[in-house]
Amino acid sequence: MTQQAFYFDGTRCTGCKTCVFACKDKNDLDVGVAYRKVYEVTGGETSKDDNGCATTSCYSYYTSVACNHCDDPACAKVCPTGAMHKDGDTGLVTVDADKCIGCGYCHMACPYNAPKVDREKGHSVKCDGCADLVAKGEKPSCVMACPARALDFGTADDMAKLGEQADSAPLPEKSYTKPNLYIKPSRDAKPAGDASAKVANPLEVK
Amino acid sequence: MIDTNVSRRTFLKTSGALGALAVAGTDAVTADSLFGAGVTVADAEPEEKIVWNHCAINCPGRCAIKMHVKDDEITRVETYSLDSKDMNDIQPRACLRGRAYRAWVNHPDRINYPMKRVEGTKRGEGKYERISWEEAVDTIAKNHKEVMEKYGPEAIYMNYCTGNYGVTARPWFRFLNSTGGYLPFYGNYSLAQLMWITPYIYGSKVGAGSSLNAANDAKLILMFGTSPVETRQGGAVSHHDYVAMREQTQGKIYVIDPRFNDSLSGHSDEWIPINPGTDAALVSAIAHELIKNDQVDLDFLHTYCVGYDEETLPESARGQNKSYHDYIMGTGYDLVEKTPEWAAPITGISADKIRSLAQEIGTTKPMFVDQGWGPQRRSNGEMTGWAICMLPILTGNIGLPGTSNGLREGSYSVNLTSLPDGKNPVKAKISVFSMVDAIDRGSQMTEKADGVTGVDQLPHDIKFVINYAGNCITNQNSDINWVHDVMSDESKCQFVLGSDILMTDSLKYSDIILPDLFRLEQPSMIGTGGDGAYMLAGSEPYAPKFERKSAYDAAALIAKALGKEQEFTEGKSQEDWLKSCYEQSRAKDPQLPTYEEAMEMGVYTRQNPKGAVVVMDKFREDPVANPLDTPSGKIEIYSEDLANYIATHEFKEDDKVAPIPIYAPEWYGVETKDEKYPLQLSGFHYRGRLHSSWGDVDILKELNPQEAWINPADAEKRGIASGDKVRVENEFGKTELLAKVTPRVIPGTVAMAQGAWHDADMSGDRVDKGGCINTLTTHRPSPFAKGNPQHTNICEVKKA
Fold first, then answer.
1. Which of A186, B86, B506, B719 gives A10 a disulfide partner, CB atoms 3.0 to 4.6 angstroms apart?
2. Residue A148 in contact with partner chain B when CB distance is under 8 A
3. For strand B73-78 and strand B64-70, is the pairing parallel, antiparallel, or unpaired?
C-alpha cells in the first residue's frame, strides 16, 4: 500500500475557504454539510491604556482540515459494520454506503470532526480524498482550488518532506490517530492542546 | 410572483437520480408518476461538455470558470489550475465565490421574465408581475421619449454598477448615446477620493503603484489599510501575489489597520492597530521624526518635488509659511507641531511606537509603501490618501527597485478594447455618489458646492434611471433610509428601469425589470492581471433559459422601439462586436492569440518580461526628460492648482481642506464620537461576497456569517458575547447582526463586512435584519471628490 496524505501550509493559508467550496461543488453538498473545514484560532489581547494607545498580543491563524485518512482511524475502529474502511492501495478512508447503517459512531469517534451522518442519504459521508480523481492521476479538488496554493496531496512520504505530522491547535495531538496530514505551521501556530488557542469561528466549522 | 428557477431540464435530471434509486431497491413508482415515464437511459445520461468562461464581478480577479455542462445544466465548476510547484506561474484560480456559481446561477429568485411593478404598490415594496417583452420595451421607450422631450438628456442617467464586466458587458452606455445622450458620472465607489486627489500629486497618468512582486526587493514594506488577500481573492491577483511576495521578500512587513485582517493571519507580529481615519496623523508624526532626525531625502525632495519647504514652493505661496515642512513643524497652517505625542491619542499608537517606526522608515531602503482603498473611503479620504504617499516621497523611495509610490499596488495586465460607448452630447457630469441628490435636488446642484463639472449648475433633476447589474441604489449606497424616501417618491424620478439576474434590494425600486444573463451564460472575454497578465475567453454553456436576454439584445430592442437600432447595433450581434473589439485589441497587442485560439484556450497568460512593475521608474531616471503630468512636472507636495480650487469652491465648516496633505479630523471620527455614539464603525470587504454579489447565496451565507467585530473591552461593558445578536445603531438607522467578540479589532471600533443584503420593513420599523452597514452610513459626500465616505461612521452597539 502507498499511503496518500494531505499537506497544509499554514504560512500561506489566509482562511478564504475556497477549498471548502471547491469540495462542496465537486460533491454536490448543500447547506449543512462540508467535508473540509477552515478553523480560525485566535488568542491574546488588544487593549488600550489610559492615553488611548493600543497594545496587542493578538495572534490568529487558520487551519484547513478535511479527513486525514489516519493510519489509526478512530472512525473505522468503532464502525460496527466495517463500512468505514481503509483502502488497501491508497490508505484513503472511505464509507461503503451499502454497509453503513448510519449509527453515527464514526462521527462521535473522529477527533477531527470529519465523518457526518447524512440523514437524507441514510449513511455516513466524508472526504474520500477525491478517490475518483486520484485514481485518474489528478489531485483532490480542494488542493487544486487554493488561490494561495497552501494545500498539496501525494504519498505520505512525499508530504512528510514538506511539513510535520499535524500536531498544532486546534487539532488533537497526532498520537491519537496518526493523521496523514503534514503541516508547515505559521509563526502564530500553537501546539496541539494549548489552552489559549481557541476556535474563534464556531459557526463556520459546525 | 417570481418564478422559481427549476427548469424542465432540472426535473429530468431529478428523475434520473430517482430512477437510479430504483435499482438500489427503493420505490421509484412515485418518482416516475411525478416526473413522467419514458426517459430513456440514453437521455438520462447525456454527454458532458466543458465550457470555459469567466467570472465578471467587481474584482480584477475575473478568474477562469471551467464549467462541466450536461443536458443544459452546469454540473460542476472547476477553474484553471496547474499542478505546479512554481509559486510564480500565473493561475487565475477562482475563489470560493467562483466555486459557488452553480448555487447562484440556479438561485430560486433568479429573474426569468420581464416584470412591471404591481399597480398601486410603491417603489421599494418589491411586488412585481410578469409582462411580455413587448410591453416592457414599449413602456421603457415611452418613458425615455417623454423624459428626453420634456427635459433633455441631462435628465437621463445610468447608475453606477459593478456586477458585470467584460468586453461587451456595458451596452447601456452605448444605448444611451445612440438614443440622444445622458448625464454621465465621474469617480466610483471604490476609490473616488484617491482618484480625485492623485492627479494633483502625481499627474493624471499615474493611477496606481508598483506591482506587489516589486516588494520582493524591499527591506521594509508598509501596508496601510489594506488586505490584499481579501479584496482580490483570486489565484492570479493580489491574494496569491501577496502570499507569494511575503514568502519571497526579505523585507519586514507592517500592516497598519484597525482590524487584524486576513492578510495578517499567521503573521501577528506585523500588525499595528490604528484608529480608523487617522493614518494622516500617523504619517505627520513620522514626518516630524524624519525631519527632526535629518532622515528626509532632501536631494529627492528638491529635485523631484515641489512644496516640501520654502525653497520649492511656487511663487504664489512663498513667504506665507505654506510648505509641508511648516505644517509638520508647527510654523504654518494650524501652528501645531506634529510630534508623536500629538499623534498618539489620535491614532491610538503610542509615541514610543511611532518613534521606533519612524526610525525604521528613516534608516531602511528600499521601502515599499502600499495603501488599500479603505483609508481613502472616508470623510477625509483625499487628504489621507495623499498623506500616505508622503512616506515614500519624504524618503525618496519612488521609482527604484523595491519601491512603490504609496498608492495601491498596480498590475501587469492584458488590455482589451471594449464595446465603444459612442458620443455623448452632454457636457455636465456629476460625482458618482450624487445620483440620489441629483434626483432629489439636481436643478439646485452647482459646480462650486456639489462637484458638478462641465456646467455651473445642473439644468434638471434626474428623471429617468437605468440600474443595470448594480445594487447601488440602496444596498451599496449610503443612508438607505433616506434613499428610500427619495426613490419611493414618484413625483421625483419618473422612471426606473432595472435589469439584473436576481431580485436585489435596489431592483425593488424599478418600474420595469428585465431578466438578464450571467456573463458566463453568454460569449465573453476579459483581460486583467496582477503580478502577471492574463486574458479569459469563453462561450455560453446553454442557450438563454426562460425569457432571459443578454443586456445587449435587450438594449437593441429598446433602441429599435426608439428608431435607433442601426445606431446602436451597426448591424452587429454581441458576438460580432466581441470579435471586432478583439481584432482591435490584437492590432495593438499582436502577441495575443487569434479569436478562435483564445476561445479554445479559455485562459491566456503572460509573464511580465521586466519581472515587476516599478512605478515612476522613468521619472526617477530622468525627471526632465520624463516629467509628470502635473503643472510643475514634479511630484506636488504643495499644489497650487488645489489652492486655487479651494479658493474658488464652497466647503462646509467642518471640512478641513488644504493644498498640502494634512491630517483632517473627521465629521464622524475618533475625535467627534460622543456619549450617544461612542464607537467608530468601519466596513470591510468580506470573503463570502463581492460587495453585495453572491450576498444571497445560502451555501456562502452559511459559512460566512454576517458579524460585527467588537473588542472584548467594548463587548464586556455591554454584556455582549460572541454569537449574540446585536443591534448597531446611529442617527441614520438600526441594523441587526451577530457579534464576533475578538481581539482582532482595536478597542473603540466596530467592524462590519459591507455588502450584506438589506432586509427591512420599509413601511414599518425600518430595522434592518440583514446587517447591511449602509443603514448606518451618511450620504454627505467627501469635500473634494464628493465621494462616498462609507467607512466614516460612529455608532452604539446593544444586545438585540
1. A186
2. yes
3. antiparallel
